User: Fold this.
Amino acid sequence: MFIQIMCLVFSLCTWCFWRLRCRMPNWRPGHRSLLVIAHPDDESLFFANYISSAARAGVQVYVLCLSTGNADGLGHTRVHELYRACATLQIPKARISVVDDPDLQDGFRTWGIPAVCKHLTAAIRSIQPHQLVTFDSRGVSGHPNHTSIYRAVRHLIEAQRACASGASGDGSSGREPCRVYTLVTLPLPIKFTGLLGVLLSAAALPSGRSSSGGGDSRGSSSGGGAGDLVFLARDPSLCFRALCCHWSQLVWYRLLFVLFSTYTYANQLRLTGQLQLDLVTADR
Ligand SMILES: [Zn+2]
Assistant:
């Protein structure tokens, strides 16, 4: 009986991980990815598996951090901690930009869309990314700084759609668009169940292949998760090692978060839209 149960568990785990392994993007070495976060440590707590997968595939990951994390007066320290954490995640300092804007200070308040868009568009025009990755509408933890980034990105996408629908063509120049992905906020019962949460997420995923490498996306949300990308941890300690670089933030509940968080073991990204790089202007 015991052997039968173990075989059943093993089969279920194999099936779940097979479903997840099918959901990798068709990256090409040299692709550029822009990760937009709100605070130093977001990259370690939430996006470590995406970053490490991209780095292994030869993707150049750039980080735009929209605040110094100065809520407790430790902004300068936290910026240097971000550099060290990113080095652990194989992101060189030259690819990291940290914004210190009076309108975008770390705190439990919503940031204005124009202020976020100003820095977003500047980074996009400078980096010309193939992908942009950030938080979704619930921001994983619900922090208003996180959700503000989503609202600004959504604003850029909608502005381009409106511009394209008002023009005679589709508004594109034939260049490959920048695909926008958002980190899926998992339901609370799944969010803090670690590896079990990964299995539950896999079981809940609708069947379907990633649309990231194909050319059929029209910039709409994939909806329901059918086209979600999933990045599994090859080294679950990576998230912990990156977080340990953030000494000023290393309190017991953050360590517990890393231990039990499903994001330590997998990142699920959803296609949210796309941006025509040549249409991204500072005044939108
Ligand atoms: Zn944050």
